[in-house]
Amino acid sequence: MIRVYRENDLEDMVRIWYDASVIAHHFVPASFWASYRPAMKKEYLPLSENYVYEQEGEVAGFISLAGEIVCALFVAPEAQGKGAGKELLEHAKSLKKRLFLKAYRDNKKAILFYEKNGLRATGQEVDEYTGCVQILMEWEDS
Question: 3-class DSSP state for residue 82?
């Protein structure tokens, strides 16, 4: 089930974001992600439009939007590969006419996921915080 996030979901969302980031972004030191945990909880997530994927009463994933920008889409490692990410992305598509996001080029699994779900690469840039190349991706309702 997808629902609007509640403030008491923040701990679970930050945990999912961190755990999934460390695994998916193995090319970035875990200490980098750890340093952003407080800001995710106090700034980034509360300022976004958030939806959580709830499974058996537990938060298993979430998507964060800022207008048409997908700021975050993360699924708990133990829940990945079961459709939660696709459902969250489809939910965002049902709310917006266009979506934009950035995914690290070295996160091949994410790039393939987004391409499989209708997004296309439109360019690339270097992330100023990590120095890693990000692929700019876009989806538009047809």
Answer: coil
Predicted pLDDT at 107: 96
Question: Contact, 2 vs 51, CB < 8 A?
Answer: yes
Residues 6+ apart with CB under 8 A from 75: 16, 20, 53, 60, 61, 84, 85, 88
3-state secondary structure of 9: helix
Res. 142: pLDDT tops 90:
no
Judge whether 24 and 61 are in contact, CB under 8 Å.
no
- What pLDDT digit, counting tens, does each position of 76-111 carry? 999 999 999 999 999 999 999 999 999 999 999 999
Domain ranges for the chain: 2-140
pLDDT for position 133: 98
- 68, with CB counted inside 10 A (0-12, 13-18, 19+), is middle
Contact 53, 60 (CB under 8 A): yes
CATH: 3.40.630.30, 3.40.1650.10, 3.30.43.10, 3.20.20.100. Which one for 2-140? 3.40.630.30
